[in-house]
Amino acid sequence: MALRHAVLAALLDSEYSGYQLAKAFDVGVANFWHALPQQLYAELTKLEKEGLVAGRQVIQETRPNKRLFRVTDAGRAELEKFAAGASKPSFIRDDLLVKVQVADVIGTAPVIEQLEERASAAEAKIELLGKLLRQLRGDAGEEEFLRRGERIGPYLTCLRGLAFEQEQRDWCLRIAAVLEERQSTHAER
After folding, report:
1. Can you tell me the distance from the alpha carbon of 7 to that of 25, in angstroms, rounded to the nearest whole number?
2. 134: confidence class by pLDDT, cuts 50, 70, 90
3. Among 37, 97, 131, 173, which is disulfide-ready with 22 (CB 3.0 to 4.6 Å)?
4. C-alpha to C-alpha distances, 45 to 8, 69, 91, nearest whole angstrom
5. Which residues pair with residue 53 across a beta bridge?
6. What is the DSSP letter of 51?
7. H or E segment at 56?
8. pTM of this prediction?
């Protein structure tokens, strides 16, 4: 998947400025695609040149003018083509895992600290994603929303993000505990 498809997907529900798109990415799309704000701005420019998004200028009296972007019919066609294509398997590429792999050789203390920090960050994301899920479904219960909700794609990807963060938190806490136990056992010898 290219960043272009994630940007097009984010713009399906609303017309966004580059700033608003970056905020939407932080909350929702970041569950499955990470991008820096400058990458998003550059991608919007490319997509507009290719006719996949359309931008319009909004004049603001008390603030600088802004451009709002929306997906065009060509952009929707690009998303349909992308959705019909085969998906590549996902993979893990995480520097913390390299540190865990060598922890028993190089020392566990800094790795334990980083595992606990990662668990804490995951916990914060779990709270944020839970709030977002409640906001997306409104007054409906989850099962009712999944059966009858108007647009469930963002909800489903948010569920995946929640599961990922929960597993991340649980794994980090478990591995930190294992390393702490080993560290104290070795110190007693």
Report:
1. 8
2. very high
3. 37
4. 12, 10, 29
5. 71
6. T
7. strand 53-58
8. 0.78
